[in-house]
Each structure stands twice: as C-alpha cells, then as structure tokens.
Amino acid sequence: MTGRTGTSGESGGDPLLQARAVSREHGAGQGLVRAVDDVDLEVPAGQSVAVMGPSGCGKSTLLQLLGGMDRPTRGRIRLAGHRLDALGERGLARLRRAHVGFVFQSFHLMDELSAVENVELPALLAGFRRRRARRRALQLLERVGLGDRAGHLPSALSGGQRQRVAIARALANAPSLILADEPTGNLDSAATHEVLRLFETLRLAGQTLVMVTHDPRIAATADRVITMRDGAFVDDTAFLATRAEPASLIDLES
Ligand code: ADP
Ligand code: MG
Prior knowledge:
It is a single chain. This protein starts with 16 loop residues before the first strand and ends in a 16-residue tail after the last strand. The longest helix is centred in the C-terminal third of the chain and has 16 residues, at 189-204. The protein is built from seven helices and ten strands. The protein has helices spanning 59-66, 89-99, 115-125, 130-143, 159-171, 189-204, 216-219; strands spanning 17-26, 33-43, 48-52, 74-79, 82-83, 100-103, 177-181, 208-212, 224-229, 232-238. The strands form two sheets. The chain has a six-stranded mixed beta sheet with strand order 6-7-8-3-9-10, sandwiched between helices. A four-stranded antiparallel beta sheet has the order 2-1-4-5, with helices on one face. Bound molecules: adenosine-5'-diphosphate and magnesium ion. Residues 59-60, 181 line the site of magnesium ion. Adenosine-5'-diphosphate binds next to strand 2 and helix 1.
C-alpha cells in the first residue's frame, strides 16, 4: 500500500526531500537568532537520517521546516515534488496530512481519545473512509505491539506505550516521510529499547525517516548521521545501507 522499495533510495530521480540554502531566523537586531543557518540537504526516499547536536543548535527548528510546520526566512524546501514556499497555509496543511508523520518527545496524544481513536485520526483527515481508517489503526496498533490496548486512554498507558501509539499514529496516513523529534527523550531505557526496535523496523521497511536524537543507540539505527552546531551541519556521514526483506510494519493490506 505504501509502494516503497526498501532499497538505498539511489533511484536517480528527485530526492524525496530537498533543502537549498535554508535559514530560519528568530527575532531581530541584537536579539537575532539564526536557528538554522544556510543548510543544504537531500534525503532520498527510503533513507533513515539521524540529526544530532547540542541543545539549542537548531534541530527542532530544522525538523519543523522540513515538515512544513514552519517556514524558512531564506531558501527553498521541496517535499515529494512540492515546493513548500509555493503553498499557502491550507496547502501546507494538506501536504502534511498527505505526506508527513510526526513523532514528538512528549507524544502529543489527545487525552480524551482512546489509542485507536488517536491512531485513526490522521487516516480520517487524509481521506480514508471510517471503516478502513479503523481497520488500519487496529493493524498499526498490532504492529507496534499494542493490539490489546486499543480501547485504552493515553492516561492508562505507560510512556513507552504512549510513544508506540504515537508512532502508529504517525504511520496512519501512510506518510512519505516520518519526522521524529527526540522520540525517546522522555522514556526510560526499557521503553527506549522498544521504540528503538520500531524505528529499526521502519528503516528496514524502507520508510524515509528524519529523527532528531541525543541517543547514540537511535542514531545507530540510521543510514546517515548529521551533526549540527549553531544552526549548521558540521558533519554528515552516510553508512552502507543494509536491509533485510522489507518488514511488514508499514505494508498493511487494506
Ligand atoms: P534544538 O532543537 O537543537 O534544541 P531549537 O531548534 O529548538 O534547537 O532552537 C534553536 C535556536 O533557536 C535556539 O537558540 C532557540 O532558543 C531559538 N528558537 C527556537 N524557536 C524560537 C522561537 N520561536 N523564537 C525565538 N527563538 C527561538
Ligand atoms: Mg529540540
């Protein structure tokens, strides 16, 4: 259903994600902060990228720009063939619904919705019919090991379980790109391990991922590690991609 290949992504076509000379400034005059400073980035479909660097170096700002949740002060971003600067707010929202899944450090689940309702919401917004969205949400919860928690409210789940629900939710619209901002930042080591395994499974399945992390174990699951300092890339190292058969986490039947 997702139609991705699970190869290294060197397809020769346009990269899924492309940033050209992108900067994002906050404030003005003495208070000016260049959170992202003249960054170039190409991410081919199927690549899994970890972004590391000290607190305040611009990682979250970069992720928000790449996902069309914020706009650059300068430069251009293309995602899935769309120039983000050419889109208005509604166009950006539509692009996010169609192409982007977001995972946050603090989960951002809707407290009053059950696990399955949280997961199916992006599928509904992306235009899936109700029954298909529900079936997909239940399948995704199974895949993240929470099939028996579908009816639970987030308050009845552990931190690791909440983040697994959030990952299932990020997959609900069959996104071209998953963006994760310190997805294990609020988790203990057992929960971190569960989330780590999920990202590894996603990588093996050929899901394009950009993950901000302080955790070298998360970075070790990526094909490529970018290090930022003061808004700029100071290191960008790609590893040889090794993949088993595409896993079934994201290839749902419906
Ligand atoms: P990181 O995620 O690497 O910790 P951020 O992207 O959150 O870094 O922040 C990068 C820099 O931009 C920091 O100096 C931060 O204070 C500043 N910054 C981020 N968002 C805003 C904002 N909305 N207004 C002003 N400054 C901001
Ligand atoms: Mg951050």
